[in-house]
Amino acid sequence: MALKKSELYSSLWSSCDELRGGMDASQYKDYVLSLLFIKYVSDKYSGVPYAPIKIPAGSDFKAMVALKGATDIGDQINKHIIAPLAAANEQLNQADFPDFNDSTKLGDGKEKVEKLTNLIAIFENRALDFSKNRAEGDDILGDAYEYLMRHFATESGKSKGQFYTPAEVSRIMAQIIGIGQAQTSTDTTVYDPTCGSGSLLLKVGDEARAKVSLYGQEKDSATSGLARMNMILHDYPTAQIAPPGNTLTDPKFKHGDTIKQFDFVVANPPFSDKRWSTGLDPLHDPHARFKGFGIPPAKQGDYAYLLHNVRSLKSTGSSACILPHGVLFRGNAEADIRRALVRKGYIKGIIGLPANLFYGTGIPACIVVVDKKDAQARKGIFMIDASQGFMKEGPKNRLRSQDIHKIVDAFNKALDLPGYSRTVPYSEIEKNNYNLNLPRYIDSQKTEDRQDIEGHLRGGIPQADIDALQPYWEVCPGLKSTLFSEVRPGYLDLAVEKAAIKTTIFEHSEFSDFVAKMAAQFDAWRDENSEALKALTPGSNPKNVIFNLSEGLLAHYTGKPLIDKYDVYQHLMDYWAETMQDDVYAIALDGWKAETSRIIEKDKKGKEKDKGWTCDLIPKSYIVARYFAKEQAEIDELHAKLEATNAAIAELDEEHSGEDGLLAEGRNDKDKVAAALLKARRKALAGELDAGFFKRYDKLEKQGGAEEDIKAEFLEAIPDFQEVFVIDDMLKLLDEGGALGRAIKTAEAELDAAAYAKYPELTEAEIKTLVVDDKWMARINADIHGEIDGVSQSLTQRVRVLAERYETPMPKLASRVTDLEGKVADHLTAMGFAW
Question: Where do the DNA methylase adenine-specific domain residues begin and end (predicted)?
Fold first, then answer.
């Protein structure tokens, strides 16, 4: 049975992080990712003739496993694993790998041996078999690599997070530079001059329709090595990652003395690099990158990198570069460069991103899109202010799937969305002296909720506030007259009680029709896609599955009233990340198999304990709901009875609690009522109270219990008999609760066994119904239906706010204050105080 991708990633991270000890994450990542790389190429290419990566005999992961526990394990890895591997492949250098014999990082003697031995053991996990890594294009290894890189970037601290561009930002850049629409081949070139670990470069490559040629340069030698490995891990073994070097002072990709030009260029350079010109004479730049634009400030290198990108572009090329917002409005030399870029028509678009997205800084950044192809015909710059769309994740912000899709849609379709995006003509930019600061052109702030003076003075909700809810009235035109009535021209009153606002909205015929239409809307999408999902087979591409499913859902809800299609889309993407991708991945590997597995846990002594069973694809609850609903209902009824009994026990206990309470003698040292103590107390009372009465009472109890009038007779004769009555009532409840608990345990065990036995009997058709209809579609339906509930809640909340804001006019408030002042004065006078 396939291990869940999410579980694989998290277990890799937790295991690696546990072994890290005191080593900085930025260093430890080199060991972990190098081991991941060696494991991958060993599984993928060992013994494979003409493989793009040659694995010398005795230099694979199995040979590394054989070194576990060896006193010289680090030295052996360096000499007999890494050195031969690097020598056999021109894409690799031994310097790309960390020193596995470095005592300053790994410790000496036994500490080093144990650390490396345990680290190797992590990658012996049977689920990490990369010989069949791809489920028709779904790259579990590449995704695991991205997962680890993101976590290492988070852990590495402020100064060491530059080696990784968040995958969400990389996806945006890959989709807006036009490579997905271009006719690509291996002759198509993509370049990243500050490629870090290569994640951004790979995202662009994946966006292309056909395999392209990737080029990258990185000045940090360790990170450059990671990039080379990353290319191989993602099936780009021929990608050219240049030897380490500073792109500005020593660009590696050249035609003779001229910088090589590419079809596409992407970059996430270091923000505001203060040492960008070290080793370079900008006035005499041999590559003429600043000619016609101007020289960037000595202490501000952002435009140096951007102009390098411009120079590296073919005349038909397109580029996207991540830069701090300051490049849009800073003055002096940068203002001159900005003006020149705008006048040449090179800047196609600017996308403002949320703050705190990147690991090296918390400042907001933007993506500057440069496109030479249509520069002469361009009439303006397309701008997007996407600063408000994100989610919090730990200490950082992160773009959601809906944020990415909205940005890409708006940019590629040049959509004019109020408060979000529009094409700004050059004439308007020129009036602003070529300042490109986004707030000058796009007002992304929420509209201020204005207070109406007349409404406060005379009462009544302003008509303008009601008209602002026009999208609701377009769907439910009659609802407005049901909720409001006019009190005078331009002002209305609430026509229903405040407590009835939600009910009035939800039960209104027009709103009910809207809910029904939205339900039918989902049903149509479900019917259209369920059969396609049931047609999944081993080898299906999970990434294609979610792409087709999500794009179809987005298109299906486009133009629908009161519902944001991107919110609907996000529900699907959240569920995909949470559950569905693991299910589809399992189906892509193993087919429609609902296999159970035992849950084995180890105690502190390492002893294994069987904690029951589970099935990831079809959890027990779905089997029970479809095949054992009657049995579950009976158990639910038992639980309800037990809950009522426990409530009665608690009530009786509370009534007779305390040191002098009638149940005091039946409490244990934890102040809990105990049946054994109650029985002992009752026996003692039998010896203390009248024997004749007790015999008569016990006889009545055996016959079905004493009636209230008989109990009254007992109490009149012997008041202390009240304690007997209370003890017996409690004992009956405890017995009843115990019996119910045993019945529940027996019924649940029987149901558990029946459900467990049902799995082998399931046909493939039944499995598909359970997974697609009962699990996936039911959950997606519930989530999307929550958006409909949100519509009524939003309208209810707004109507309530407006009603409460203007329900008491100022004269009435003033009169109330006067009345209260009079009452206070009267009270003070009555008490003998002058006011």
Answer: 138-449
